[in-house]
Amino acid sequence: MVANKLLTLVLLRQAPRILLGMKKRGFGVGRWNGFGGKVEPGETIKAAARRELLEESCLVCNDLKEVGLLKFEFLGNPQIWEVHVFTSNNFEGEAKETEEMRPQWFEEKSIPFDQMWPDDILWFPHFLNGKKFSGYIVFEGMDKMVKYDVEEVESI
Ligand SMILES: CSc1nc2ncnc(N)c2[nH]1
Predict the structure, then answer these.
(1) FRET partner for 155 with CA separation of 20 to 30 A, picked from 31, 46, 69, 88?
(2) Cβ of residue 33 lying under 6 Å from some atom of ligand 1
(3) Which of 83, 114, 138 to mutate to test the pocket of ligand 1 (most atoms within 8 A of CB)?
(4) pTM above 0.90, yes or no
């Protein structure tokens, strides 16, 4: 039994806009993503989210709130990806392009779902309504969801 792979995903908001990043290399390249990555040994999940946000966007956020928990299974890979989703509207600095990401603010009513991970359209409605959510999604490859179950929850 392999332990879940712990990952973070940060989506900053400044209503009516949301900050996304165009992934320039590696996993998810060519898609608008949230900011995030792996949790390193010895750091809390929230600290990892703060660190990855800073590394990928140059923004500092000391006010991250966990709003979602998404578990991904990729057919053929026994390791479940456990993605902890955070948000905030209280951060410092200007989003800057890095080697990893090209940040861009989007109006919440025109989110580029066709250039994002397919799962996003399942949980963004809960996220944009300020609700907490939990989901389990099974991918076949990087584009096809073969099974999914996403719901609003009271607590993560
Ligand atoms: C592996 S599934 C996944 N969905 C995502 N949505 C938004 N940003 C990401 N980095 C995402 N990864």
Answers:
(1) 31
(2) yes
(3) 83
(4) yes
Closest CA to 140 of 81, 83, 69, 76: 76
What are all long-range contacts of 53-57, with beta carbons under 8 Å and residues at least 24 apart? 53/10, 53/12, 53/91, 55/98, 55/100, 56/21, 56/98, 56/100, 56/101, 57/19, 57/21, 57/95, 57/96, 57/98, 57/101, 57/103
| pLDDT over 90 percentage in the chain | 99
**ipTM for the complex?**
0.93
Q: Name the residue at shortest CA distance from atom 7 of ligand 1.
A: 33
124 lines ligand 1 (CB under 6 A): no
Decide if pLDDT at 1 tops 90. no
Is 106:95 a contact under the CB 8 Å cutoff? no
Protein residue with least CA distance to atom 2, ligand 1 = 117
Pairwise CA distance, residues 132 & 60, whole Å: 23
Calculate how far, in angstroms, residue 33's C-alpha sits from the geometric centre of ligand 1.
6
> Phi/psi zone of residue 76: left (φ > 0), alpha (ψ -120 to 50 degrees), beta?
left
